[in-house]
Design goal:
With 193 residues, this protein is an alpha+beta fold. The chain has one domain (3-139): Jann2411-like fold (Orthogonal Bundle). It is built from 6 helices and 6 strands. The protein has helices spanning 13-18, 35-44, 57-79, 85-97, 121-138, 169-186, and strands at 21-24, 27-30, 100-104, 111-115, 145-147, 156-158. Strands 1-2 form a two-stranded antiparallel sheet. Helix 4 (85-97) crosses helix 5 (121-138). The longest helix is centred in the middle third of the chain and has 23 residues, at 57-79. It is elongated and about 75 Å long.
């Protein structure tokens, strides 16, 4: 695995989790297929989540299970549809399994978290991910969640403006180029005089 595979990280935690599935053409590819993949992803999230000491196949399974539910609610939110009940239930169960309280930090805008229960590290990680999805979908950015439909992207992102269609300018260029190519291939060629 190379660092460039994670070059898009740094958005809201729930989005970073959901975007561990990447679209290649019109098919989705799993980016977390081993404990090493999850360890690399977690290393990029250092400071945002508590990283378990042992990253094994069981943790990968638990992470993917939680991720799939987060992905389900975020895609529904991006599409403006009701959140799937099974995904909502699973996320609420994960968050309740290891709740944390937010405490004021030393600087404005900084907060600290403290666990309320003595849950194991894997449960805490999944709970933190679930809580991040809850925070996103109940906060001021809930209506800004969008799906980039550019060719080969499919990433979830937060719109910076109401009419934003793509996650970044490169995706916009690819989408416009594809539309242009499709328009030009649909036109019958004109005979030369």
């Amino acid at each position: 695995m190379t660092v460039t595979q994670w070059s898009w990280l740094g958005d809201r935690l729930a989005l970073d989790v959901a975007n561990t599935v990447r679209r290649r053409g019109w098919r989705y590819t799993e980016l977390i297929t081993s404990p090493a993949d999850l360890r690399a992803w977690l290393d990029h999230q250092r400071g945002r989540v508590a990283i378990p000491g042992e990253v094994d196949t069981l943790l990968v399974t638990r992470f993917l299970f939680t991720r799939d539910h987060v992905l389900g609610v975020l895609r529904a939110a991006a599409g403006g549809t009701a959140l799937p009940a099974a995904d909502v239930h699973a996320i609420n169960e994960r968050a309740a399994a290891a709740p944390t309280v937010r405490l004021l930090g030393a600087r404005p805008g900084q907060h600290l978290t403290r666990p309320v229960t003595r849950a194991d590290e894997a449960t805490r990680l999944c709970a933190d991910i679930a809580a991040a999805a809850i925070d996103l979908l109940t906060g001021p950015d809930a209506t800004a969640v969008a799906l980039c439909d550019a060719p080969g992207c499919g990433q979830l992102y937060l719109r910076g403006r109401p009419n934003q269609q793509w996650c970044n300018p490169h995706c916009g260029t690819r989408a416009r180029s594809q539309r242009h190519a499709e328009r030009n291939t649909d036109r019958p060629s004109r005979p030369s005089a």
